[in-house]
Amino acid sequence: MNRRLPAEWEEQDGVLLAWPHAKTDWHDTLVQVQKVFVEIARAISRYEQLVIVTPAIIPAEEQLRRAGISPDRFTLYRIPTNDTWSRDFGPITVYENNQPVLYDFGFNGWGLKFAAHHDTLVTAQLAAQGAFGKNTVRVPGLVLEGGSIDSDGAGTVLTTTKCLLSANRNPHLDRHSLEQTLGNLLGVKRFCWLNNGSLYGDDTDAHIDTLARFCPDNTIAYVCCDDPHDEHFTTLAAMAQELRALRTIDGQPYQLVPLPWPQPCFAPDGHRLPATYANFLIINRAVLVPTYGIPQDTAALETIARLFPDRETIGINCRPLINQHGSLHCVTMQLPRGVLS
C-alpha cells in the first residue's frame, strides 16, 4: 500500500479547533483565551474551513459571528472536551493511494499527566457526526500526539526520544519496534531522532513542534538559545549539534534556520513558561506565528516570513495560551486536502 504522511505546507481543507469553555483549565482566564481563539479562527477562515468542537454550540457560534466570521466558514460539532489541545487528540491524516485516511491514535494526557477521557474520543465522535464524509477512520491502538512528530511529506519524520519513547505512552514498543510500526502506518521511511532539547514549563515531554520544524526545500527552523546564562542554553546547544549532523534522504545537510530566542515569560506563581516561535501553523497561503508581546516578536515574524515567501505571515498574540504551557500550533490540527470534501 502506498502511504504518505503529508507535510503541513501541502494543501488543506481546514483546521480543527476545540473551543475553550469554563470546564477546561482556562476557567480563570476564559475571556482572554477565547479572544485568542477568535483571532486564530478569524485568520484561518480567510483561507480555509474551520471545524470546531465544543460542548456548547450557541456561545461559540455567537463569538464567531460577533467577530465577523461568516457562518459558511465554520462548522460546529457538539462534543465534550477536557481541554483545547487539538493538535494532540485530533486525527493524523495520511494519503493511502492518494486518498485521505484518518488515524485516531490514543491520547492519554501526555503520558497520564492530565485527564483526557473526553479528548481521546473527539476524532471518533467527529467521524460519527459525519465531519469526514466517507473517508476511512482507523484506530491503530497506539498512543501518539500530533505535536510529537513533524513530516517533510517525503517520507522523513522529525521527533524526540524523550516523548516518543516515554514509558507512559507505548511501553510495549522499543525504538526499533516503534519505528517499524509507525513507519508502516504513516508511510514513513526515516525517523530523525533528537535526544536533546526541551523547554521549561513544557508538559509534553519535548514535543518536536516546540523545538524544530520542517520547512520547504530541506530546511529546518529550530529554537536557538543565544544566552549562555539561560537555563536552556546547554540542552539547546546540544540539540543544534544534532540537527547539524542530520542528513536529507539524498545525504545532504539540512539548511538550518535559527529562530529568535524569546525573553523569559513567567506565570504569576513565578515558574517559567514555554514560549517558543517554533509553534507556528502553516495553512493555505499563510503562516500563523505565535507572538508574546516581547521585543523578539518582530524578528520571529521576519524570520518565518523568509521561510515561506509565498505565504502571508500573520502574528497572533498567544501570551495567554502559554499560561497553560502550549501555544498556537498546539491548539490547532490541520485537515489535509480531501478530508472534508
Automatic annotation (TrEMBL):
InterPro entries: Peptidyl-Arg-deiminase_porph (IPR007466). Gene3D superfamilies: L-arginine/glycine Amidinotransferase, Chain A. Transmembrane segments: none annotated. This is Agmatine deiminase family protein. It comes from the Bacteria. One of its GO terms (biological process) is putrescine biosynthetic process. Keywords: Hydrolase. GO terms for molecular function: agmatine deiminase activity; protein-arginine deiminase activity. It comes from Desulfobulbus oligotrophicus.
